[in-house]
Structure prediction request, 190 residues.
Amino acid sequence: MYKANYSLSLHKARSRAAALLLACLLSSCGNDIEKTRIFEPRNLPASTIVNAHIRRSENGSLQLLMEAPIVRQYGDPESKTVYPQGVRMRFFDGEDRPTGILTANYAVQYDKRQIVMVRDSVVIIDLQNGDTVYLKDLIWRQAEHRIFSNNPLRSKNGPRITLGDRFESDDAFKQPHIIHQRGTLEWKEE
Prediction:
């Protein structure tokens, strides 16, 4: 009798384990539509470039050198290029002399709309006069040749620090404007 109870208990334990295993397998096999959408072809990049070094020139004169750890190009539904790990751009005057540097932790370029947006720790360095502008984000409307940010910023020129509410400039950074300047501070490091 002891042997029969033992085998009956063993049989019940195995049945419970099998039922539990089957329940786990069935619950994990469900398709969550939102989770599987990221694998749809329209959400995947058409191409990916790792450690990109891009040169742009006009009429044989160097205008821009851009470096990005990853570049992803998408086709549909809107043609765009995404720089998910940021960019570093060096601008030149056409005579191979550097004029400025722009860095950001994220960027996206919309081809049809001709808009480039950079964000997350945007820094612009004007190598000609030493100005450095720190921004949260920056938008470049290529067709309008206009660059702007509607968020607060900080500008540094030597020991002077200027705070402002917005930033505007032409796309060559020849006419930068800080809108609603809140003051200029003299800062001396010792």
